[in-house]
Amino acid sequence: MTDLSVNGLAEPLPDITNGNHLGYRSGRMNEAALKVASEHGWVAPKSYKYDADQATTETPASNGDGLDSGENKDDNATVETGATSRASKFAPGNWAHDAGRYEWKEEYGDVGPRSEKLEEELFNSKFINRAGGNFKNLTTVKVIVESQKRPAPISDFETAGIHPVLVENIKLCEYQMPTPIQAYTIPAVLSGHDIIGVAQTGSGKTAAFLIPCISKLMGKVKKLAARRPNLAGNFDAERERVRAEPLILIVAPTRELCCQIFDEARRLCYRSMLRPCVAYGGGPMREQIAQLNLGCDLLVATPGRLLDFMSRPEVLSLSRVRYTIIDEADELLHDDWETEMTKIMSGGDANTDGDHRYLLFSATFPKRLKKLAAKFLDNDHVHISIGRTGSVHINVKQQIIWTENNHKNQALYDLLISMPPSRTLVFVRSKKSADLVDDYLFNMGLPSTSIHSDRLQIEREDALRSFKTGDAPILVATGVSARGLDVKHVMHVINYDLPSAEHDGFNEFVHRIGRTARIGNEGLATSFYNDRDSGMAPFITKILVETNQSIPEFLEQYKPEGALNFDEEDPDVEDGAVEDEGGDAWGAKGGAAGASDDAWGNGNATAAASEPAWGGETGASAPVEETRGTYTSTPVAAW
Ligand SMILES: Nc1ncnc2c1ncn2[C@@H]1O[C@H](COP(=O)(O)OP(=O)(O)OP(=O)(O)O)[C@@H](O)[C@H]1O
Ligand SMILES: [Mg+2]
């Protein structure tokens, strides 16, 4: 393994002593172990019990958002009764959907005035992730774009044709330069294309889709948006409420991820008329509807809750949607979600005019999904791949440790105690294991909490909040939390159980360890491995080779001879497609082949190209051409 200094791991952890902790404990805390943990610098675990009344009367939200195989993904069940009454006890405003956002008033001109208080909350929280010292590493990967026009990536936000208010918001976010997925996606969306965007974990895909969509609409909201109440003065919620008619719809598979995307949308929509909302299962339906009733131009939603709202025309209409964005698209295009996604993509009163763009994003995108995805997209859609699809970033240092199942608890404890305390995410394979491992750590005096889909939504939100704040810096999680979550200073991901090779384990492995080392930060991923994980062995070994990590002896036998070939894990290659990503153009018959391998973004690329580049407003109305080209480059010339 490449060296990772662990000395600094503890620094980001605040010295918090009054944390809350969820009450799922059995057994008794081992006092001697508590002393040891404390001597090693871990904050003391705290137990927190919701009031007894709640604990007994609430129906558990046994309805996750489906990333764990076998977990019920209907994220609406139990909500109206259980969660609503719970909400009345849970302090209003603590739910993620209630988070503060910029409220537009009719008297504002084109841009609203600043609000110092909101700015502080939106942009200055110490828990917001910031670019790390290895940010440059993000820009050295190979970029492959399949499109009908030659790509012209942007090299900064200021001159990219982004709405000036949004440029200011990007500055407040402290984004100094676009990441590669942003550099390519932003001009492609601004010029009217549908997108498949694939880039490594933690490389800024959320902003890549939010920035151009928000920018395109920012100046036009007055014209395009539905009627909305004037929230200034004596706003009467009963009489003046409206139905939500969003212009931007974002669908993501888990509740926590939706809330996180909503947070980023709140930042980027600041001082604009665009009002973001979030809707997700397990949260109180009535309160979410009350938020929609105030006007909603950008809606982030889990599929189950979205379908529920779609079936209530007085609550939600999709007839104005200009951008539908599917985050973690490979997960949502999976057969498990087919019924929901078919309805969402083509059902209800969705806007079927040609001005409706579709954007699909993920860090993993199996080849077999290309055809399926293409059904939803325009012929001139742009497929952007930053790095090998499904690859792990080199900023993640990895180690694989042989651990028999009956030694895993001890090994986990030893590992945690042997390193400086740090925010650590421990992945297990089942909900039961999550409870047991959390219990074990807690009883051993370590500040852990856990999250999985059998927990009430309040408890899920609380667990994540405790993890983020450092109250409970160890979070034990199932695969529900593998995708998308962006928590500052997650320094260590531990695969207590590796995912199962039979259940999309390769992709899950990539997403799981991608919870650390995000946006140029460093991080460590440790995986416990034994005979039962042999299905994962060839894949993991190739990942280790690809990212230049050392290979443990027990994996030596899986080390491939010659060039790495990941098609074994992703076999469904389309007929006629070329294996090498650099030459894999869909149906391309050499139309733009001459453009391959040129350097982009260097000022004269456009002139040299045989096809016009993106960047103007011409894309949407350009005639559809017969062929697509594949354009590759590394590194991105502009950086
Ligand atoms: N240009 C930028 N400069 C600095 N930080 C950025 C930039 N773009 C995004 N970020 C930050 O990087 C972090 C990771 O971004 P994001 O969650 O969008 O990654 P992602 O590519 O969607 O990862 P995943 O595949 O895990 O979902 C976020 O905290 C985000 O605010
Ligand atoms: Mg993401």
TrEMBL record:
Pfam family, one: DEAD
Ranges of compositional bias, category Acidic residues: 566-583
Residue positions of motif Q motif: 155-183
Transmembrane parts of this sequence: none
Residue ranges annotated for the Helicase C-terminal domain, each copy included: 411-559
EC id: 3.6.4.13
Compositionally biased intervals (Gly residues): 584-593
Protein name (record): RNA helicase
Organism the protein comes from: Exophiala bonariae
